[in-house]
Amino acid sequence: MNINKDYVINKMVTLLTTPSPTGDTARAIDFVDECFKELGIETRRTIKNALIATIPGEDDSKHRTLSAHVDTLGAMVKEIKSNGKLKLTQLGGYAWSTIEGEYCTISTEENGEFTGTILLNKASTHVHGGKVNEAVRTGDNIEVRIDEKVHSKKDVEKLGISVGDFVYFDTRTDVTPSGFVKSRHLDDKACVACILGMAEHMVKNNLTPKYTTHFFISNYEEVGHGSSASIPEKTFEFIAIDMAAPGDGQESSEYAVTICAKDSSGPYDLDVRRHLTKLAKENEIDYKIDIYPFYGSDASAALRAGWEIKHGLIGPGVDASHSYERLHEDSIDATVKLGILYMMD
Asked: How far apart are CA 234 and CA 96, in angstroms?
């Protein structure tokens, strides 16, 4: 099986450079919608503006759903300080230290966008000496320095910046000659691109899945309720496509697809895991099995919402999750292949 990796990575890069923090995902959803339509795949929107694309299967009596989420980490303006700096509130779970020094964009309701930098409020070593190293980074001492001539809260308000405006982090997306993709927000835009790669392969090769298959592109996963509603009702198996997390004590790899056995919500369905593992073994796909103690997925959200489904989780290895992330094209290739084999089996 030959996967069109250029297609997957090109779609991934476009998605990565399209801001979509939780709550402000319309542009990214629109882009993915257009990708499915270009392939001739029927789509629809949910009330929450998630996207569902459907490929009819040989058997329509029961359905499978594969999900990935387009929403990412980000921030909103929490307070305009008297000195013209901005305090932030987080969207999603991450350490404040992982965004320190990052360039960002403030998106206003009426006056367009403004750039800035996320900094400690005592950032200069020449001014504050050892206090720079001693400070624990929190929402109280991390702020945005706006790239405009502002000295007061009133100056900032004149720009049209207000509490509740979304703040996008610069992704610094880079594709290396050695096959790595480095970027913020590979969680989970890499996996949305994997789903597009699965769909593209099915369409271009005139393949029909065993069961009618839905691709559920959720937009509130980072805050826990991405696929808690609107799952197609005939769904009997639900597979979340989400990042694997390599690191100390973990089995996951940047060069393989990982099949998750358990996360913070509990074990994934054993029959589904065994099925996925069997497919990987029989087709010589490089895979790992892993457990994540600080992790939840769209499949977790679906079960908590009361959906009676068998659930699984697979995904490419993403190093430094919820920080400045990296993956390798080998894990993309393995994930797309396993997803296609699962749909066909």
From this structure: 42
Residue-range domain boundaries for the chain: 5-72+185-344, 74-169
**What kind of fold does domain 74-169 have according to CATH?**
Elongation Factor Tu (Ef-tu); domain 3 (2.40.30)
The structure tokens 């299967």 sit at: 57
Give the tokens for residue 157.
């308000």
> Which DSSP category does 280 fall into?
H
Residue 226's nearest CA partner among 298, 303, 322, 311 is 298
DSSP structure class, residue 15: H
Active site residues: 221
**Per-residue pLDDT band at 7 (split at 50, 70, 90):** very high
At residue 207, the pLDDT reads 98
Burial class (CB in 10 A: 0-12, 13-18, 19+), 116: buried
CATH number for the segment(s) 5-72+185-344: 3.40.630.10
What pTM was computed for the model?
A: 0.96
Q: Which two tokens stand for residue 43?
A: 């789509």
C-beta of residue 73 within 8 angstroms of C-beta of residue 92: yes
User: Tell me: the pLDDT tens digits for 239-277?
Assistant: 999 999 999 999 999 999 999 999 999 999 999 999 999
